[in-house]
Amino acid sequence: MSNQTNRIKEEKELEENKMGVMPVNRLLISMALPMMISMLVQALYNVVDSIYVSRISEAALTGVSLAFPLQTLIIAAGTGIATGLNAMLSKALGEKNQKDVNSSASNAMFLMVVVYGIFLLVGLFAVKPFFHGQTSDAEIFQAGSTYLSICMYFSFGIFGQLLFERFLISTGKTMLSMLAQLTGAITNIVLDPILIFGYLGLPKMGIAGAAAATVIGQLAGFGVAIFLNLHYNKEIHIRFRFKPEGYAIKRILAVGIPSMLMQAVGSVMNVGMNMILMGFTSTATAVFGIYFKLQSFFFMPVFGLNSGVVPIIAYNFGARKKDRMMKTIRLGITYAVGIMLIGFAVFQIAPGLLLAMFDASENMLSIGIPALRILSLSYLFAGFCIMCSTVFQALGNGVYSMLVSFARQMIVLLPVAYLLSLTGSVNTVWFAFPIAEIVSVLLSTFFLLKIYKKVIKPLA
Is the pTM of this model over 0.90? Predict the structure, then answer.
């Protein structure tokens, strides 16, 4: 009798999920806005981190810039699993399938443990060879390898934070997810100057302090996310003892691996660009690193918007509610394009002010001002492309996102950047980014039309 009572209770909880009944625009704003705010705060701590590092030396800033591709790879692996989980979990909620809901959660935890083990080994054995392959400058090497090693050793914090936040997002509890993200970001921002410069009686740690602040912030966010799930997320029954299930793992990875590869391609692109730019000057590499920190002010809110869009589309796909899916897609594209146009305007109007935050020298300003203006041309197209990728992932077709990303960054961007570098002008190299984005628009449109005809239209 108690089993039947529990089953009825579980079904009632699933039936009342707001993703299937709330007006779409209000639903999207209510789910995405908290994530966008928390992503903005995360973007802020990424920038603040680099601002403090730039006060150590330009070599330290360059070292952190060179470390960025492997840091991105950590995020790619964690986000890939979380994206696969999100699509599977939200679809199971829409289908009222509690067994798949719980199975998705436990197997995603298993996958995160496995991935952390891989990156721990990378941290132990691959960091120094990674930097040796990019620079012969002893100061840049020491700063970058110290920073990256600490981030690798303690990367279980970011993996745990990503996973348990995604549990909250998938069930529509984005306010709670925002609280966990804010905890991690604010902890990092507060600790950065204290640990880097040795305030409040603590030793001056320099670049190691920046890394320590980062991982402590991630661990804080992880702890809060666990607490919030255990106490407020009743739609997912989290069990820390789990048995791997091939079926659930396969479904998570079907969406997750393309997402991982898509972001991993970004890491390869960053390494390639750093090597091209180091052929001109290490200052150009530092400028490229600064750009990636600054762009997060506009890309991170769009990614926060994505976090609201994915579960809505996946839930209503499971519930076969085509109109709600299409309205979500249209609104998502509109908002994403609007955000990126604001970013374009900021980079065009005030590149010098942006660079000045990083204690930029005259040489850095001469390279950085035209770089930021040229790079931001890609923003005219990026909002649409990012939202198309989100739609592909939400509907379980992450391979489309992977193909677009691979074509953009590996087939177009890097080869074009190399060819442009042969002109001898670093300013010319930056044009590879808007050129690659135009290719991305064409491919994204093609795949969006294809997925509409194949997946969405038959729901009518």
Answer: no
